[in-house]
Amino acid sequence: MCLGSNLGDPVRNLARALERLGRVSGVRPGGASRVYRTQPQDKPDQPWFANQVARVLCDRTVSPEALLDALLGIELELGRDRGTGPDAPERFGPRIIDLDLLLFGGLVLRTARLELPHPRMERRAFVLVPLAELAPGLRLPAGHTVEEALSRLVFQVVPGPQGDEIRQ
């Protein structure tokens, strides 16, 4: 899963989300990358994000949809507003927490609620850089590695005052 935040205390928001993930029945954290500061991608006029990728270990009883529901519940608990209608938060805008399910083993799935692998993950260095750190050599369902996907992107990882920054 990928975690992101750019409101409040973003690094603390990521830690709080991982801590809550450990309380979900049948689910336990299995390690996380370090936190990266990243430029906003689709809406640049907002604060930079703190992003990281975490491995989630699930019992066989946990479906991808159940894990998605747990992630959405954690977002809600931490104050994420995913409202709809004219007063809904702007898509790709600032957020207290964003939890995205990237992969579920090698499963390829497309439903009205969930697409696996995540449809935009291979276009986002802020996902692939920490994923390569956490799982070097990981082969994606399409057959190539995370590093091969990264080689198709233009980005920089540079030291910054608050940790490594990913600029894309």
List its salient traits:
168 residues; two-stranded antiparallel sheet; 9 strands; globular
Secondary-structure blueprint:
Elements (H helix, E strand, L loop, with lengths): L1 E4 L4 H12 L5 E6 L3 E3 L10 E10 L5 H14 L20 E3 L8 E2 L4 E2 L8 H10 L11 H5 L5 E5 L2 E5 L1
Parallel strand pairs: 3-9
Antiparallel strand pairs: 1-4, 1-5, 2-4, 3-4, 6-7, 8-9
Report what the structure shows:
This protein is 24% helix and 24% strand. A hairpin with a 4-residue loop joins β6 and β7 (115-116). The longest helix is centred in the middle third of the chain and has 14 residues, at 64-77. With 168 residues, it is an alpha+beta fold.
**Assembly type:** single chain
Shape: globular
End-to-end gap: 20 Å
Structural class: alpha+beta
Q: What is the mean predicted local confidence, pLDDT?
A: 93
DSSP helical segment count: 4
List the helices and strands in order: EHEEEHEEEHHEE
Q: Strand count, sense and closure of the main sheet?
A: 7 strands, mixed
Q: What percent strand?
A: 15-25%
* Regions with little confidence, pLDDT below 50 for 5+ residues: none
Q: Could you tell me the number of beta strands?
A: 9
Helix coverage percent:
10-25%
Radius of gyration based on Cα positions = 15 Å
